[in-house]
C-alpha cells in the first residue's frame, strides 16, 4: 500500500512549530530579564496605609480641639491612634509637600519646588521602598496636582487618577474628584483585585479646597439654620464679610463631607481584616489661610505661618496599640518615611532628612530638634537665588517654642513664641529684649546654614503638556490666569 504525503500540510506544520518555538524563546527571555518579585514581607505588620487630607487644618478636627466642625470618624480614629500634637509640614503646596512626605527629604534636596514640576527618577519614593520589600503598591488620587505626568507615581503598581470633575476651561479637563468617588475607587479595586499578602495603600482626599463647595446636605450644614462657628480663628479680629463667611462655612462643610467618606474607607478596611493588621498614617500636606494669617486669604503656598504649616498627624498601630495617646514631640512630614522604615525593620535610605519616631517606646521621642519649612509662592520674580527656587520666599525655622519667619524678597523677619502665641499675632522683634535678639540671631544662622545645604535633584516644569498643565493647575487655584506664573525655568 502506498501512503501519499501532503507536502503542503507538512510545510504548514513545520512553520507553526517554528513560530511556536520562537514565541517560547521570547517568553523565556522576557521571564529571565524581568526582575523577580520580592518575597513576601514577614515583619511586624502586613500592610501600610497612608491617607493624605489635602489642605486640611488640624484646628478644624475635633481631635485637635475643635468644638463645632463635625468630624466623628477622624476623631474616633484618633481615639485608637497616636495623635501628633505638633506635627508640621515642610512645604505649603501639594506636590512639593507630598514629595517630601514620600522621600523624607526637604524640597531643596528632592528638587520639586512647587506644583507643575517633575519628580526626578533618582528620588527613592515610599512606594518604591515598600515595593522592593515585597508590598503590592496601590495609589488613589483626588487631584491633578499629583498626576503621573509629574512622575509622582514612582513605585506604584496601580495608580488610579480617574478624575471625574470637569473644572477646566470650557469644562474640558478632568482635574479632581470628591471623597465619595475616591473611597468608591479603593473599594472597587479591592473587590476586584483582592487583598494581597502585603499591601501599601495610598489614598488622597482633596475636598477642603477652594472653591469650598460641599455637596448637599453639607452645603447647608453650617451657618444660618445649621451649626454656627464657635471660636473660629478667622473671626478673632471681628465679623467676616458675607463672602468670607460663606467660604469659612464651605470649608467646614467639605471637611465634614470628607470625614464621612474617610469613615466609609476605614469601615471597609476593617471588614476585610486589613485595618487591624496595618500601620496607618493619616496626615495633611498643609493647611489653609482662612483669613487668620498674613498673606492672601483662602489660599496657601505664600507663607510659612502656622495656619499653613501645622498639619494633621495621626498614627494607628495594628490592633490600635498605644491608642488614645497624644504625643507632644517635634515631628515633621519628612519623618514619615523613616518612621515607617524603622517600624518595618527595613534599611533607611541614604540622604533622608527626617528622623524616625519610635512607635514602640513613645517616651524616646522627646529629644528637641530644629525644623524648617518653606513657601512656594510667589513665582518667577523672586526665584533668583542660584541655590534653590524658594530661597528668597518666606522660610521658617522652629526651635523649641520659638519660630523665626523670614521673607527675603520682602525684607521681613519675625519671631514668635508658638506656645504662648500659636496664632502668631505678636512679633517679638517689634520690641526685642537682648535675649530675644540673641535667640533670633542663633535661629537666623541655623536657617542660613540649612539653606546652604541645598543640593536639589534636577527638575523642570512639565512642558510636554505645557498648556494643559497650566490650564489644569489654574483650575485648581494653583496658578493665576497669566502663564507668566508657570514658567519653564531650567533645573
Give an overview of the whole structure.
- This protein is α/β, with parallel strands linked by helices.
- The chain folds into two domains: 47-368 and 455-481, Alkaline Phosphatase, subunit A (3-Layer(aba) Sandwich); 394-452, Arylsulfatase, C-terminal domain, CATH 3.30.1120.10.
- Helices cover 29% and strands 14% of the residues.
- It has helices spanning 7-33, 72-79, 94-103, 107-110, 126-132, 179-193, 242-271, 306-309, 336-344, 434-452, 466-475; strands at residues 47-53, 82-84, 87-88, 136-140, 158-160, 165-166, 174-176, 199-205, 278-283, 313-316, 325-327, 331-332, 370-374, 394-399, 402-407, 412-417.
- It has an eight-stranded mixed sheet, with helices on both faces. Strands 13-14-15-16 form a four-stranded antiparallel sheet, with helices on one face. It has a two-stranded parallel ribbon with strand order 3-12.
- The protein is globular, with a radius of gyration of 25 Å.
- Mean pLDDT is 89; it is low at 1-10, 13-17, 169-174 and 481-491.
